[in-house]
Amino acid sequence: MTPWTIEQLRTLVEVVNTGSFTRAGEALNLSQPAVSMQIRSLERNLGVTLLERRPRRVLLTDAGRIVFGYAGKLSHLEAECRAELADLGALRGGTLRLGAGATPSIFTLAAVFAEFYRRWPDVELKVQIGRTSELVAGVLKDDLDMAIVSSGIQMDSLDQRPIYQESCVAIVGATHALAASETVSVRELARYPLVMLPAESGLRRFLENELARREIVITASMELASLEAIKEVVRSGVLVSIVPETAVGGETVSGGIKALGLSGVDLRRQTVAVRRSDKYVSEAMRAFYGLLEERWPDSRSALEQGRGRV
């Protein structure tokens, strides 16, 4: 007897991920009894108990954890096989699961997303917005094909492709005392109340780390979850901030905000595309890499490093 089938392993993965036979059935378009039968058949064929059934939850046994780990790997291999077969259709179908930080998604990547759809409308582009740590975890778990993040991650298991660099600038309200200046030092700026992204955000960590190397400490008087909200507060003329230059592109003093260069310090950060080093690069991924090269030509030489793997 066959020890397992792909359907049984897929059912096990769904039960564990959803924590419920009923929710797994809904995700797989199966009845709850059919899900239970798949799991019982898998346990019988393997000769082990995989799950502990408890009220309102299921838990993996020691044997279950082993099988679940391999089931996930086999599911990923199946997905990659389907992706390669889909590529035969010359981008007439398939899905690209992309992760991106909020800042690049809003201020720099929206046009790239739109262009991808314009050229390949039959490819479903799923974009997950999140923090760098969340997106990297998604790439490592193969929940995402690739991610665009605004900081480098030192992991041998990840392939990183530099895309562009951007500088940070100070922003003040048009009526603020500093608005008459074109530049400001970070030490002077820090004397005013600052509104910043939360401490766990990638931008905030970048700023604090870079300034700490110069023995400069900044303290947030207010924390807001988005750059758009920060800009609105800065318009009031009471608080100031430090943001990526792209976040204020096109802003004018008449719009209530003045961007100032930061003197004495170059706060420039790198945006990179990351994927698992062992990830099959689908035609959809190749197409998206190509759009990045078109949008930021200076990145082409960096993107072409290791072209054989892409």
Strand content: 15-25%
The CATH C-level class name of the largest domain: Alpha Beta
In the CATH hierarchy, the third-tier topology of the largest domain is known as: D-Maltodextrin-Binding Protein, domain 2
Q: How large is the count of helical segments?
A: 11
Q: Kindly report the average pLDDT value.
A: 87
Structural class: alpha/beta
**Major beta sheet, specifics?**
8 strands, mixed
Q: Percent of residues in helical segments? A: 40-55%
Distance between the termini: 40 Å
Work out the count of structural domains.
Answer: 3
- The ordered string of helix (H) and strand (E) elements is HHHEEHEHEHEEEHEHEHEEEHH
Over all CA atoms, what is the radius of gyration? Answer: 24 Å
Specify the CATH architecture of the largest domain.
3-Layer(aba) Sandwich
Stretches with pLDDT under 50, minimum 5 residues: 305-310
Task: Describe the protein.
This protein is α/β, with parallel strands linked by helices. It folds into 3 domains: 6-86, Orthogonal Bundle (Arc Repressor Mutant, subunit A), CATH 1.10.10.10; 95-164 and 270-309, Periplasmic binding protein-like II (D-Maltodextrin-Binding Protein, domain 2, 3-Layer(aba) Sandwich); 167-269, 3-Layer(aba) Sandwich (D-Maltodextrin-Binding Protein, domain 2). Helices cover 42% and strands 23% of the residues. It has helices at residues 6-18, 21-28, 32-46, 62-87, 102-119, 132-140, 186-189, 202-212, 227-235, 283-295, 300-304, and strands at residues 51-54, 57-60, 95-100, 124-129, 146-149, 158-173, 183-185, 194-196, 220-223, 241-244, 257-263, 268-276. Helix 1 packs across helix 2, helix 1 (6-18) crosses helix 4 (62-87) and helix 2 (21-28) packs across helix 3 (32-46). The longest helix is centred in the N-terminal third of the chain and has 26 residues, at 62-87. Mean pLDDT is 87; it is low at 305-310.
